[in-house]
Amino acid sequence: MFVPTLMGQCTPEQQAYWLPRALDMQIIGTYAQTELGHGTFIRGLETTATYDPETETFVMNSPTLTSYKWWAGGLAKTVNYCIVVAQLYTKGVCHGTHPFIVQIRDEETHMPRPGVKVGDIGPKLGFNTADNGYLGFDNYRIPRDNMMMKNAQVLKDGTYVKVARHGKATYGTMVFVRVLLVNEAAFNLAKACTIAVRYSAIRRQCSPDSEGSELQVLDYSTQQHKLFICIATAHALQLNSTWLWKTFSDTLAAIKQGNVDTLPELHALSSCLKALSTADAASLIEQCRHACGGHGYMMSSGLPYLYAFVTATRTYEGDYTILLLQTARFLVKAYEQVEAGKPLTPTVSYLSQAFTGKKLPWDSSPDGIIRAFQALAAGKLSSTVKSLRKRLESGLSYEQAWELSTIQLNGAAEAHCRAVMSQNYKSEIERLTVNSSPNVKLVLQQLYKVYLYYWALERTGDLLLYTSISESDIFELQLRYEGLLKEIRPNAVGIVDAFDLRDEVLHSALGSYDGNVYERLMAEAQKSPLNAEPVNQTFHTYLKPMMKGKL
Ligand SMILES: CC/C=C\C/C=C\C/C=C\C/C=C\C=C\C(=O)SCCNC(=O)CCNC(=O)[C@H](O)C(C)(C)COP(=O)(O)OP(=O)(O)OC[C@H]1O[C@@H](n2cnc3c(N)ncnc32)[C@H](O)[C@@H]1OP(=O)(O)O
Ligand SMILES: Cc1cc2nc3c(=O)[nH]c(=O)nc-3n(C[C@H](O)[C@H](O)[C@H](O)COP(=O)(O)OP(=O)(O)OC[C@H]3O[C@@H](n4cnc5c(N)ncnc54)[C@H](O)[C@@H]3O)c2cc1C
């Protein structure tokens, strides 16, 4: 995050000075925004940067314990510089949060600078290879030039000058990382399902009849139900990630031309896609662990590490709930645009159907299911706006009405995102397989159908509300889904092999390409320190005295 912020928030002159040093590793930096007391609410951050025109410096200060920067990766022992997000004060006026480049350790000795308190925040559920740290300032001075001045400036005499064309320019790095995280979610889910599917092809357990041999667990329908949605989702996230990256790049190019019109839609898309992709990836990686029984619980399976690593993405770079609420904010505005007869942006153009007042006729084709997801999203949004307005009519303020409706708002945002992801998944597969062999087309179509059928069956309640789907339609869809799993089974191992993930990347005794699971599990077990000697010294110091009643 350090380098992207230098690129996004510095003037060209500042970039010319800082970027080469950062890219050359002469300086190592991190992005310190979150504090002990605030992560989501950026406007509530307490660290201050007060400009002193006498010395042309900013005085960095941590006025309270809760103002200490907390969490930044590498902050504890690695970095010697930080991008610090602080409340900017000049001429007695607070201008809100702005980014500053702050040296925190000596470039030669690596000792913390006077006025800087820095340390490690302690063990975490995962990410323990990163030294996430804390940082406090005691009236620590930095040169005026260390304010990142692309979007706002403080002149030598302390005059504040706003430069950015849009109010949230300083939030740009977060949008960039959120876009990257969709791709990271896809990559890590692909690793987990490669491990789980390969292991499920090796593992034999239970024989349906007394004479027969034990079945590969991958042959069981319930195992296919657990795992094939994981494969389908890994592809869905990867294709949505590529689509979102292009949307991001197009928006950035437009902003460079002075056109910020598409930024709100990008913020809404990056928010909900980051939220859903990281939440789906984390829960499906856990599902891959469940599918591997006891051996999935071994660190040597690679699955606990993947889960601990990915589940954090639901929180950092914007908490799941918060980002969905950002998308909901955009959707409510889009709904009002439909009412006013104004044109809609592409990803919300389906909302016009919210005003037909009729249930969408059920169509179980892939395109029909995608339309049903859109009808579901439009219906949930319409119902949410109705709740909002009912609360406003009761005399509540907009903020109060909004807060009371946030559960529904999040549901509408999630439904919108599922519809967008499903649409992108199918259209990207069709675009990319135009010249593919019939077999490749068939397999990839089977996977997006798994995704569509799975989520339709997960959302039958909503589909009954907003489409004409019947009980028998649901019964037929369930049978079709279960039949599709059996069609995919023969290709399942080949499909995860196609992720082309090397053993060194998987780090898994269960998922290695050669399938020698049991030999690898035993080899990993031998590495346990407890196997260094036949009798551990704790027998003599604790067990034996206890057995003799001497403890
Ligand atoms: C599997 C993963 C593997 C590897 C990953 C690799 C690397 C990662 C490894 C480790 C983690 C590393 C780093 C982690 C870093 C961090 O976590 S950095 C800190 C991140 N923190 C956040 O994301 C905080 C979240 N909070 C916010 O973004 C904001 O507070 C807010 C919730 C958006 C609210 O902001 P605010 O109160 O200022 O604004 P609102 O009043 O809600 O909205 C005002 C208008 O502004 C628009 N808006 C808001 N944000 C943006 C934006 N980013 N871009 C564009 N526009 C924005 C908003 O839509 C409103 O517009 P309006 O409706 O028209 O008024
Ligand atoms: C592994 C990891 C690495 C990180 N790396 C960095 C880093 O490098 N730099 C950095 O600056 N930060 C980093 N962070 C911090 C991260 O950005 C924050 O944890 C994140 O933004 C969430 O903020 P918070 O922790 O204050 O949670 P909170 O915002 O306090 O959330 C707690 C709960 O309150 C809910 N909540 C909060 N506000 C609202 C609201 N308005 N409406 C409804 N519910 C609400 C949330 O949904 C959540 O359920 C990292 C975090 C982790 C876990």
Automatic annotation (TrEMBL):
* Family note: Belongs to the acyl-CoA oxidase family.
Chief subcellular location equals other
Which pathway does the UniProt entry assign to this protein?
Lipid metabolism; peroxisomal fatty acid beta-oxidation
Acyl-coenzyme A oxidase N-terminal domain span: 1-28
Which keywords appear in this protein's UniProt record, sorted alphabetically? FAD, Fatty acid metabolism, Flavoprotein, Lipid metabolism, Oxidoreductase, Peroxisome
Residue spans making up a coiled coil are none
Q: What is this protein called?
A: Acyl-coenzyme A oxidase
